[in-house]
Amino acid sequence: xxxxxxxxxxxxxxxxxxxxxxxxxxxxxxxxxxxxxxxxxxxxxxxxxxxxxxxxxxxxxxxxxxxxxxxxxxxxxxxxxxxxxxxxxxxxxxxxxxxxxxxxxxxxxxxxxxxxxxxxxxxxxxxxxxxxxxxxxxxxxxxxxxxxxxxxxxxxxxxxxxxxxxxxxxxxxxxxxxxxxxxxxxxxxxxxxxxxxxxxxxxxxxxxxxxxxxxxxxxxxxxxxxxxxxxxxxxxxxxxxxxxxxxxxxxxxxxxxxxxxxxxxxxxxxxxxxxxxxxxxxxxxxxxxxxxxxxxxxxxxxxxxxxxxxxxxxxxxxxxxxxxxxxxxxxxxxxxxxxxxxxxxxxxxxxxxxxxxxxxxxxxxxxxxxxxxxxxxxxxxxxxxxxxxxxxxxxxxxxxxxxxxxxxxxxxxxxxxxxxxxxxxxxxxxxxxxxxxxxxxxxxxxxxxxxxxxxxxxxxxxxxxxxxxxxxxxxxxxxxxxxxxxxxxxxxxxxxxxxxxxxxxxxxxxxxxxxxxxxxxxxxxxxxxxxxxxxxxxxxxxxxxxxxxxxxxxxxxxxxxxxxxxxxxxxxxxxxxxxxxxxxxxxxxxxxxxxxxxxxxxxxxxxxxxxxxxxxxxxxxxxxxxxxxxxxxxxxxxxxxxxxxxxxxxxxxxxxxxxxxxxxxxxxxxxxxxxxxxxxxxxxxxxxxxxxxxxxx
Length: 697
Prior knowledge:
By secondary structure, the chain is mostly beta strands. It has a single domain, classed as TonB-dependent receptor, beta-barrel domain (Maltoporin, Chain A, Beta Barrel). About 5% of the residues lie in helices and about 55% in strands. The chain is built from three helices and 37 strands. Strand 20 and strand 21 form a beta hairpin. The longest helix is centred in the first third of the chain and has 17 residues, at about 5-20. It is globular.
């Protein structure tokens, strides 16, 4: 779509109408200040020259979210793809991966959980005891480097407190959904604080397997545990140790031959993740000039992902009339991933500013070593497939924040990164790369008054190239190049109406070069009319992504709060995708996305929150023309607050819409119709009602 369609314009008008309404209202309340922790320094949201969404613990509670995927629709121009038990693959402004099978991938969206790098492993991003989620849009070339071309998501846990405090929450919902979570923190002594949290979440899922007569083959079973020790070792030294463990034993039985929530699989799949991670963060106030800060982290993740490839039982052609004989196949991927990183930086203090005391500075060194071993067990293969992929990154980075006057600040950042990678597999494919990469940003902030800030930004991001493993590929398709992107952005942030209205507006234009896009090698399955697909990555010449992002929070009165976000997005390739697909919009890039809602205080103890979220249709892949349908979802949460305890009655997707979270086109998998090519879809959450109780102490 080269022009915005009618629904896109309607979404934009909704936002304009909201601002028109709020501009004539008054309120006595002031919105709390929001601080972003993902940058080099803690920064006020309204003073950061970037498009950032911050979702706090209250927002998480109102959504009754158990995982990051249930929050992403609240952020403008943020989408996700499932193809697993969770939405593990995230796209920001239309950029990001949509699946992973044999190929090693270099993610486009970075994910940090308590300072620990879980990039590419978003299944670990549960909301257990999370204080806030920060979503940074646009390349983070200075901050995070190679794995943050599209943006960065930072999950920050509740930290140790001076006083003993905690909470216990129990939630029950349809589909046998049960959640119990607890967190407690306080001070062991004057120097040592702690926080411990645990969450167990389980549900049967939304699929009925008619062949096995079960309703739990697509189940969720997740355990998360976190402990934090915060030690003020001396007046100048602080140490914080975080240990995080996740154990997910989820089912995966999502696709049906009839495109319904009723499957016929005889070998339903699974999506398992057992991971343990440790991070040691230190801060040494060396003198009045600078602080030495460091983070050492290690994560060991064992993942197993498998599925019934034929989505049916072996004797389906005995019970049904088939045009061709059916086939039976299971595909299973076992990954062992280890990730070690060290980040050491010098951060200036007031006494260490340079250039006549006008400029703060940061200078840092980053090192990362990640290894991933894969075992693929595939029914049609003659033997198991194994691969070993190792990457080592070494980066030097720095940033200057120069205050030219009380109103104008210039931010300049640069990151130079050396990346080495080697790959080898059991089919004698080998690949080594040694490349130098660079990214950074130049931003200008103008504080027009105490309440408003205007900024302009130019940033550059990069995503490393790699290798395709399948030996049947042509030589020209075996490797793909590094992708680069320039991001041009301007925006305004501020408080209006005596602090009762907080708003952010950002306009961006992104130029992408050597875009990495996923292709497929199609091969027939012997003795059937079905085909198998081997994914591989290639490069499109260039493309562009541009649009607008709006967010607002408005305290209209003592009893009414309004909130919302809208993202408008246009994307395009400048060259045809294949011999049969012309240049068009990029995949998983809806032209509009919105979330609008209101919270009403019905009485001293009773509050109601209602919100509507929606997306435009979008292509599911760059390989075919299958699209989703546009949708709108209605969610509600009624809370009775009695001080130390509260009771919530909530519902999501109240109109029971079918939402596609993954799909395939140009694909035949049903022997009953002769493997005729047709689209297949994985559906998201249907209508769900639940009841939650929470006790704070």
